[in-house]
Amino acid sequence: MLTGGARSGKSAAAVAAAGASGAPVTFIATAEPRDAEMASRIARHRSCRPDHWTTVEAPHDLAGALEAADPADTIIVDCLAIWTTNRMLTEPRPPDADIVEEAVRLALLLAERPGQGLVVTNEVGSGVVPATPLGRDFRDLLGSVNQALVRAADAAYLVVAGRLLPLVDPAAGLRGRRPGE
Predict the structure, then answer these.
(1) What is the C-alpha separation between 25 and 167, in angstroms, rounded?
(2) How far apart are CA 5 and CA 22, in angstroms?
(3) Sheet holding 2-4: strands in order across?
(4) Whole-angstrom Cα distance, residue 14 to residue 27?
(5) Whose CB has fewer CB within 10 Å in the chain, the N or C terminal residue?
(6) Backbone dihedral angles phi then psi of residue 32, each to the nearest 5 degrees
(7) How many whole angstroms from its chain centre is CA 109?
(8) Where are the alpha helices (H) located in 89-179, listed in sequence order?
(9) Distance between CA atoms of residues 46 and 54, nearest Å
(10) Is 7 left (phi over 0), alpha (psi -120 to 50) or beta?
């Protein structure tokens, strides 16, 4: 799991790790080119990955895309924040609990795969509290989605300025330490 702010290097880190895996790669993309600026972003991301990788467009059904992928492939899911947005904007909007349940299902599917799974997402809880109810709902929902995936992940990293900082499970990381250490 790779999380971080916008333009932090999350996708580049996932692409580098997948390229180093030695396995075939399936890239599961969640973004849709709804305007020229997003189309440009998608094109920039596509240009950073090898042509021989399989790309699957899955703006709504990540679990279905994952189930259809070769189990031995290295999978990149990019990105949960866009997927969460897509799910929130579906009409009629599914309840937040249903979106979190979908994320839990995705996490379990990834954990059961023999191939490596790399998931990219945004960290949105470190900034200013959003001004609108929809913005606050998105922040809270994405936090729950991210936690569902991290709970099932072998490793999680915060990406800052292209560098990976390992995130330690609080239960494992605080054992034997006294407050203030």
Answers:
(1) 25
(2) 28
(3) 54-57, 25-29, 74-78, 117-122, 2-4, 157-160, 163-166
(4) 10
(5) C
(6) -120, 140
(7) 14
(8) 96-112, 133-152, 170-173
(9) 11
(10) left
* CA distance from start to end of the chain: 27
Q: How far apart are CA 154 and CA 138, in angstroms?
A: 26
Report CA torsion sign: 128, 132, 135, 136: positive
**Structural domains in the chain, sorted by start:** 2-167 (3.40.50.300)
Give average pLDDT by consecutive 10-residue segment, the chain, 181 residues: 94 96 96 91 89 96 96 96 95 94 96 95 90 94 96 95 92 56 51
The residue type found at 60 is H
Do the beta carbons of residue 110 and residue 152 sit within 8 Å? yes
Counting Cα atoms < 13 Å in the Cβ hemisphere of 21 gives 22
Which positions are annotated as active-site residues? 45
Radius of gyration (C-alpha) of the chain in whole angstroms:
16
- Which amino acid appears at position 110 of this protein? L
